[in-house]
Amino acid sequence: MNTKFISHDFKNTATVDQVGIEERVSRFTTRSIKKESKLQGLKMILSMIDLTTLEGKDTEGKVKQMCYKAAHLHDIIPGLPTVAAVCVYPSMVKTAKTALVGTDIKVASVSTAFPSGQSTPEIKISDTKFAVENGADEIDMVISRGEFLKGNYAFVFDEIASIKEACGKARLKVIFETGELSTLDNVRKASEIAMYAGADFIKTSTGKISPAATMPVTLVMLEAIRDYYYATGRMVGMKPAGGISTSKLALQYLIMVNETLGSAWLTNEWFRFGASSLANDVLMQIAKEKYGVYQSSDYFSKD
């Protein structure tokens, strides 16, 4: 299992120019988008959202309600896409899968003792297999941040590789919890480890701690994806999660993706937003673009 790890020296990962990253991000936030392009971008954002409920108080009824919203975002506006996926705990995968029969919406499940990652390898693999056996199309795993911060990169690599194997045909998103990694250099290193270990997506955060997704962190990860693609020819997806609640900010993320990776990544196969609250803001903006006035938030379901 360590063959790929040995052939790639993660201790000598490229360092990140933080000043340069922040300067590039500042350019993305000043771009203006024309009305027609804005409407297209807003619909694209909707199609890239993973609607999520990951609470201790989750019930089957709450998950079913979220699944209905995923397929019926705002029926009075014709031509809206559905979201990309719903994300739930393993125990709710079967409920979500049943509720989404007849749609193209994926069911994602967190695993590996989300959000802390503090459990045994055996439990993490069992957690993953349970979700897949119940119908999960995608697995969102968390890495062991403690092992990473100790410099035990081989452990992190092997853990990701073992979960990838347990996923079978399900796609694997690897969550770093970048708010705990402290530096952009660590974010770059974690990105390389995950991709070489077989990740299909790399993901910023669990959404459970602050800071979650930020544009500088996301840009570092996008550049790691770009460099990995040049080195291997394999595309890897990106999912910023947490802290993206407005259409304006989400559009800036799309600009950053397009200018860093290119238009091939501007589909929900390769880019996702882990931001459930974002959906309603995007719907309100689309209604404003179509009808010229904002609709009250009371017209949009919370879940």
Helix share, percent: 40-55%
Through-space gap between termini: 42 Å
Average of the residue pLDDT scores:
92
Derived from helix and strand composition plus strand pairing, the structural class reads: alpha/beta
**Broad shape:** globular
State the low-pLDDT regions, or none.
1-7
How would you spell out the order of helices and strands?
A: HHHEHEHEHEHHEHEHEHH
Q: How much of the polypeptide forms β-strand, as a percent range?
A: 5-15%
Question: What summary fits the major beta sheet?
Answer: 7 strands, parallel
Output the number of helix runs: 12
Strand order of the largest sheet: 1-2-3-4-5-6-7
Radius of gyration: 19 Å
According to DSSP, the number of beta strands is 7
Key features?
globular; alpha/beta; 12 helices; 303 residues; seven-stranded parallel beta sheet
Overview of the molecule:
By secondary structure, the protein is an alpha/beta fold. It has twelve helices and seven strands. It has helices spanning 3-7, 18-28, 35-47, 60-71, 93-99, 121-133, 145-149, 153-167, 184-196, 215-232, 247-260, 278-291, and strands spanning 50-52, 85-88, 106-111, 138-142, 171-175, 201-203, 237-239. α3 (35-47) crosses α11, α6 runs parallel beside α8 and α9 runs parallel beside α10.
